[in-house]
Amino acid sequence: MNPQFLISGLLLGLISSIHCVGMCGPIAFALPIQLLPKQQQPFGVLLYNVGRIFTYSLLGLAAGIIGRFLLVGAFQQWFSILFGITILLVSIHTMVLRRSMHITALNKWYNALQFFIARRLRQQGLFTLFILGMANGLLPCGMVYLAITGALTAAAPENGMLYMLLYGLGTLPAMFTITYFRYSFSLIFRNVFKRVGPVFLIMVAILLILRGMNLNIPGVSPYFYQQADNTAISCH
User: Fold this and answer.
1) pTM for this one?
2) How many domains does the chain divide into?
3) Is 207 within a domain?
4) Three-class DSSP labels, the chain
5) What pLDDT does residue 186 have?
6) Do the Cβ atoms of 178 and 21 come closer than 8 Å?
7) In terms of residue numbers, what domain contains 115?
8) Which pLDDT tens digit goes with each residue over 110-165?
9) Other beta carbons less than 10 A from residue 120's beta carbon
10) In terms of CB atoms within 10 Å, which of 3, 114, 207, 224 comes out highest?
11) Do the domain assignments include residue 63?
């Protein structure tokens, strides 16, 4: 496994933190942390985030399995370019029109998860926080989809899982902070984070496009050449 590829998962998680604070902040503020004894509250916040990262890891495992058989050789390059262009267009659409693009099927999934989360928010206990974290990891999110795309190119299930694990760990510092110190963050502060999210998405989209163009940029484009050499599937 290319260490630069794994590092990119961690860095993507750190970048995603800005987006996570803006989009998932309301859920983090609504968590029933205050119902726990004072000494258990930090552990409860950590357990909630462990649930998120656990879900990301499972998604990475599934993406690695799928990518092992679908994304072979040069097709990875075209997939990266097309996905990067898609993210770029969606991000520009969001910034210009100041509204997100919605997919009906995903909206139905989002509404079902919101209902599930709303019911669990009325409960208390450490296990409830873990379940809420797992559910949060399944919420529709452009940055998570982007990370899953990276896991698709991992060429092996365990590598896809490790990529998404590192992505989740990258989001941990910001998400832990905003959850545990949620009363210290104002609405204006959260809205600023939400607005700069598309800017970082554009940066990552450009990175994806560059990765697929094989421009011989160290740590960016060469990765696909290495993958193409190592992922050929033989029937013998």
Assistant:
1) 0.75
2) 1
3) yes
4) CCHHHHHHHHHHHHHHHHHHHHHHHHHHHHCHHHHCCHHHHHHHHHHHHHHHHHHHHHHHHHHHHHHHHHCCCCHHHHHHHHHHHHHHHHHHHHHHHCCCCCCHHHHHHHHHHHHHHHHHCCCCCHHHHHHHHHHHCCCCCHHHHHHHHHHHCCCCHHHHHHHHHHHHHHHHHHHHHHHHCHHHCCHHHHHHHHHHHHHHHHHHHHHHHHHHCCCCCCCCCHHHHHHHHHCCCCCC
5) 53
6) yes
7) 3-230
8) 888 888 988 888 888 889 999 999 998 988 777 788 788 778 877 788 989 999 99
9) 17
10) 224
11) yes
Residue 49, CA atoms < 13 Å, CB-side half-sphere: 26
CA distance to 30, 114, 123, 133, per residue, from 151 (Å) = 31, 26, 34, 21
**What angle, rounded to 10 degrees, do the helices at 187-212 and 75-97 form?**
150
Scan for tokens 């896991």, then name that residue. 151
Whether residue 23 lies inside any domain: the answer is yes
Residue 235 in any domain: the answer is: no
Amino acid, res. 92 = I
Q: Judge contact between 28 and 182, C-beta under 8 A.
A: yes
- Higher-confidence position of 57 and 154: 57
CA 47/CA 33 separation, integer angstroms: 11
Residues comprising the chain, all counted? 236
Report which of residues 100 and 129 the model is more confident about.
Answer: 129
Rg of the chain on CA atoms, in Å? 18
